[in-house]
Each structure stands twice: as C-alpha cells, then as structure tokens.
Specification:
It is globular and about 65 Å long. Helices cover about 35% and strands about 20% of the residues. It has 3 domains: about 1-125, Rossmann fold (3-Layer(aba) Sandwich), CATH 3.40.50; about 125-210 and about 260-330 and about 360-385, 2-Layer Sandwich (Dihydrodipicolinate Reductase, domain 2); about 220-250, no CATH class. A 9-stranded mixed β-sheet has the order 14-13-12-11-7-10-9-8-15, covered by helices on one side. The protein has 13 helices and 15 strands.
Amino acid sequence: MIRLGVMGYGSRSNSVVRHALRRVDPDVRVTGIVDPDQAGVRARLDDCDRNDAQFYPDLRTMMRRARPDALMIGTRCNLHTPYAVQAAAYDLPLYLEKPVAISMTQAQTLERAYRKARCPVVVSFPLRVSPLCSMTREFINRDCIGRPEHITALNYVPYGTCYWEGGYRDYNVTQGLFLQKATHDLDYMMFLMDSPIVRVAAMAARGRVFGGNKRAGLTCAKCREQDTCPESPANRQRNQSGGTLKDHLCPFGKDCGSPATGINEDASSALLEFASGAQGIYTQVFYSRRDAHRRGAIISGYQGTLDFDWTRNDLKYIRHHAPFSDTVKAGEGLSHFGGDLELAYDFIGIIKGRGRSRTTMQDGLRSVYACLSAKESAEKGRFVKVRQID
C-alpha cells in the first residue's frame, strides 16, 4: 500500500488520485489530509479511503502521525508555495499542482528551499508529457524540421467562464491567467524548443468581456435577466454553449474585480524570445465557445513544419523541400489528453524507487518566472527579462 498525504483535497486532487494514480497502482490510499473543509472532502473520498483517511491541522502533525510515503499539494494557488516549502524538509516524493508560485517573492522563496532539497517533485504539467506533445518532440529530435526557429501556440478556452463565476475569480488567489493558465503552455513550449524563455513582451485585455457592474454576490437564480442572459444555465443549455448548468455567480459582477483592483484577463498574448535565439508567440482567449476551442502549437524550421492540436487530436508534419505531408492521430478520451496518466506513472515510479520526474521543480519555476515576466510586461507595456535558474 502507498500511503498518500494530501494538502488541499479538492476536485482536482480527487481527480488525480481517483482517475490517474489509482489507475497506475490500485493500492494508493489517502491516509492523511490537511484541509479545513472536512465535510466537502469526506463527500469526495473513495470508499477505500473513508476508514483510513484522518484529518490533521498542519503538515507537521500529519507527517508525525500519518507517516505518509508521498505528498500531494492541491490547495488554492496562493498556498502552493507555503506548503511546498514545508514539504521540502521531508525528502518525500511530492506531487505539486501548478502554478508552483504566484509572485516573485514566492517563486524565489521556493527556489531557495529546493536548491539543496532531496525531495523529488512532479509538477502538474500534463501537457508536456501528453502523448501528442511527446510525439512532436520526437519529430524535432529526429531533425525532421531542422533547427526549430519559431513556435506559435494557441489556447482558445471553451470553458473560460469558470475564471469569473467561482473561486478562480479571486484575483488575490490567481494573480491573473498568465499564472493560472499559461503556466501549462509556456512550459510545453520551452520543452519543445529545448530552450528557456529569456525575454517577454505581453499584453492583456481586462474587463472588456467579463466583470462589470452587477451587484456583488449576484447569482443567476436571483437575476431579473436570466431569461435573456447568455450565461444563465437555461440559455447555456439551450445554446449548447458550455459551462456549468447549475446556478452560479454572475460573471459580470463587481466582485470579479476590475482593471484597477485586479481581474483575470479576457484574453492575453505574449511575444517570446528563447535562449536559443528562436522566437515564439502565445495567445490565450477565455470567451471562446463550442467549436472555437483550440489548443496546440505550430513549430517551424528550415526543413519543415509541425502542427499539432489537442482538440483535433493529431500532428501534421509538412516537409518544406519534398512534396509529402503526414498526419499522425492520437488516442482519445484521457484527462489532459493523456498527460495526467503519464504524470501518475512518473509519480508512482518515483515512490517505488524506479522512476524520475519529467516535470521537475526547476521546470515549474522556469514557467512561473516566464509567466511573472509576461504579467509585468502587460502591466508596464515593455519587454521584460525572465529570471533564469540553473
């Protein structure tokens, strides 16, 4: 049996345990939990965990009493760093949700804590290890396109309203969607280009679509406009436009924040310079719906172009100097396009002493530093250098 201690057992942690870790090893058991919402956690727990799982007030107490074999951090984003710094002292395998930090102070604190730590970390970057992204990297490694010179990555999010109608609307927790969302994408872009991002120029649109003047705390059930508003559960269902079909907070409310006080961006983009000299472009859009959904990248070199998209679920290879093009199809129906399962194999392998992480703390920090630079660039309107780590 693998005894797992979890800090923050929300829906994401529950999904990783239930659908990824236990698929790799059915003997994973949640035996220790640090989470103030005991009622909510108990409702999520699998039957096999209900008798053994105990709640503790803090990590130190859980370590002493539950004696876990490995740790998982799935708290709200602003608490990832504080718990990860504490976990560094115990040298246990750690599964850490992204982003690993939400500020420069947190990121540098985390960097210092893990310089000499022997704690092996798997950061939740499933896109990097998804089969489609891994196949793209294999094509690059085989020199199919020559030296990669340019990458364009797109993320048109069809469920973007979740960042304004639930806990993610709290800007103090997210610090914006470069950190909350782009941390995935900038990581896989650096992985594919085999080079860190060193300079960023970015821009962001805030308060143009979501946010607004509706009263704080307003929900659809209490709104006089629910018959005409496209975001009401009834109209979402009628229009098949996606999003929760339950009553929810208004995405046009004052309590979403504002450009002056802080609010998640409706869309944001970044121009990227890699240490190799290659260039990149990244764009994320959060008001897209239905078939507008796209997430993937185009990578080009002198010899050819690779174009993959997780929504299409394929990889296209175009030769520049020969009249041939290929399309590779990927498997379907897996969480995060198969990446969550790959991370589970890595984490279980590390726990059993026969594996290694493909998404290390250093990878998590490189992504956060790039995202923080993008955030600063969008705020200040200039190029920003990215802090580098060894």
